[in-house]
Structures are given as structure tokens and as C-alpha cells.
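Closing statement on the zinc ion sub-project.
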Amino acid sequence: MLEVEFTHDGSRCTPELFIAAPEKYEGLIVCIECRKRAWFTKGFTTVKGVERTACFGSHHEDGCNRASSILEAEDMEGIETDENGDNKSADIFINLDKTKHGQIEKSVDNDKTDAPCTNSDLI
Ligand SMILES: [Zn+2]
């Protein structure tokens, strides 16, 4: 989520405000809806090169409308992060398979280039 409540005075806190004064907001931000403790997540680039913008994560109550981001789930527990890591690995394997298919097509071309070799057999 991109907006949390600063419990000290009830004001709203955005990633921009948090970056400007992290020591002020750290540990004092909660989900606006369910008021569960929230934390700031820096922007980063995933293994796939997908850029994630800075935002806030939280252990939302069930049914909280703010609990929609996959990124928040990734930040909840290390175990879940590992599971996501496995998913990324699976994607990489799929990509490798595609690459292999491409190589198979090239090998077909190689078979054609082998044709002159049969001519040498004739000689
Ligand atoms: Zn919430």
C-alpha cells in the first residue's frame, strides 16, 4: 500500500514522507483500514528485472481492503519469500526449455549442413 497512518498524530504517511524522515515514522505506522502495524519497504528490482516501487507492508486483518498487494505477502514471512523464490526458479526453468527448443530448431539446420558430408561419402 502507498499510504499508512502515523499513529503519533493520526496523519497520513506516504513513502515520500517516510523516506524524508524514517526515524520519525519507524514503528509508528499502521494500516489505515485495519490499523495493524505496518512497515516501510524500499523499492527494489526483482530477479526478473521487474522494478518494485517503495511502499508499505502490513499483516492485515482478514478482509482488509488494503491487503491486496502480492508484494506485502512476500514481506510477511521468510518462508513465503522462499516459496516465491521457488516459483521464480520454475519460471527460469520454463525459459530454459524455450531456449532448448530454439536450439533444437538450429540443430535441424545443422542436419541440413551435414548434407554435403554425404556428398563426400560419394567421393
Ligand atoms: Zn489493513
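The radius of gyration is 26 Å. With this model delivered, the sub-project is considered complete and its resources will be redirected to Aim 3.
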